[in-house]
Amino acid sequence: MTSHFPLLHVPNLPLARIVDFMEPDALVSMSFCSQKSHSVIKTLRKASCDERLEVGGSNISASSISFTNIGCVLSASNIAYISSSKKEEYVKLGGQQVRVNMHRLRKYLITYWEDILNGLEAITDYVIDLFNIDVSEVCISKYSFKMIEWVNSRQTTPLKKIVYMATAWSPCSSEDEMNYILRDCRCSSEIIIYSEAPPNFRFLNNFRRIDCLDNSNSKWVTIDNLLSMDGIDIILGSTTLTSTDLNVFLKHWLSGGCPRLKFFLARIGSVNMFQVLAGLVHNAVLVVDRRDYTSPFGYSRTLTSGVDIRRADGVTATVCYQQTGELIIADGKARDATVRNRQNMSDMGKLQ
After folding, report:
1. Taken in order 166, 171, 174, 178, is the CA torsion positive or negative?
2. DSSP string covering 21-68, please?
3. Where is the Sdz-33 F-box domain (predicted)?
């Protein structure tokens, strides 16, 4: 016969160490046991400096709260999805008794709601209060779009990352949604859009400063849009940009435009490198090697060969067209100097 360990009777100093060693999902479950357990966790736990809280509301039937590199700690699901054969258990959340169940494999609590969005707001409030941490990232779809403003209204620190996901029942975002994400919402670092824009959508404003913009369907992006961007990483899928447009962008970068750029990718299909490099041959050097580029935002690409172009301030960019239909411009400093094989640009045939 085993006896229970009186955890909450342990002195505060060792108890704080125990709480810090526990995983966030276990702490959330424990916090519902009593007011004292909630108070102990809220008071004694010290957040890790690299912790990031993520709110996922892209699924209309289930949403979740997660910690980066740890996973889900609490989720909200539609009450229709709970089995009637399950033992009914409840916790007090958002001012009401909410039915809960433990995830069979991953062992975090699932809460059940008539309205998933209300549930997502309630569990978000609960977790940020328990751990005294701001939300860093939201992953939303059309049905949960208001979570961007809802989260930003509850904290002084703006969101670091916004991910907009299309759904099978709503593959296209609206003009108002696109304009809000690109122009108006408070987001300090990353904007990722996995959705189609309306057929006739045009963004008529200058882009605000954003570290990383990743747009999976970028047919709406014009050369004027591109010239107004100021980012570290710019990833444009399915664009209608031309080789001439990219030549204009390269000349813009050479003259000091988009000064923070480290990684640019545009999926444009057919590329004519003679047009891309028109007027730039005197400033270009062929490079034949292979290197792996990893951006600070997690994007990895292997570049095979390319052309180095150097700006007046000494900054070098490698321009590379890949068989996947992607034109890449990457920070030339990341190249491994031990494998460089630079050739004179008079060998222009190798560009094709």
Report:
1. positive
2. HS-HHHHHHHHTS-HHHHHHHHHH----TT--EEEEE--SSEEEEEET
3. 204-264
Q: Is 272 helix (H, G, I), strand (E, B) or coil?
A: coil
Model pTM above 0.90: no
User: CA separation (Å) from 155 to 119, 142, 181?
Assistant: 19, 22, 18
Output the furthest CA–CA distance in the chain (Å, rounded).
84
Burial of 186 (0-12, 13-18, 19+ CB in 10 A): middle
Q: For residue 153, list its beta bridge partners.
A: none
Taking only the tens place, the pLDDT of each residue in 194-244 is 999 999 999 999 888 999 999 999 999 999 999 999 999 999 999 999 999
Whole-angstrom Cα distance, residue 217 to residue 106?
Answer: 34
Residue 319 · residue 277 · CB < 8 Å: yes
Nearest Cα residue to 212 out of 188, 241, 181: 188
Cβ count within 10 A of residue 118: 13
In total, the chain counts a number of residues equal to 352
Q: Which residues pair with 266 in a beta bridge?
A: 236, 327
d(CA 122, CA 348): 62
Task: List pLDDT tens digits, range 87-109.
Answer: 789 999 988 999 999 988 888 99
β 159-165/96-102 pair status: unpaired
CA angle 28, 30, 33 (to 5 degrees): 120
Q: Which two tokens stand for residue 3?
A: 């006896």
CA distances 52 to 25, 71, 107, 119, 333, Å, are 14, 11, 20, 21, 30
CA–CA distances in Å: residue 233 to residues 51, 136, 167, 191, 294: 23, 19, 25, 11, 11
| 28/124 Cα distance (integer angstroms) | 12
Alpha helices in 55-134 (DSSP H): 116-131
SS3 176: helix
- Residue 271's contacts (CB-CB under 8 Å, 6 or more residues apart) are 243, 246, 321, 325, 327
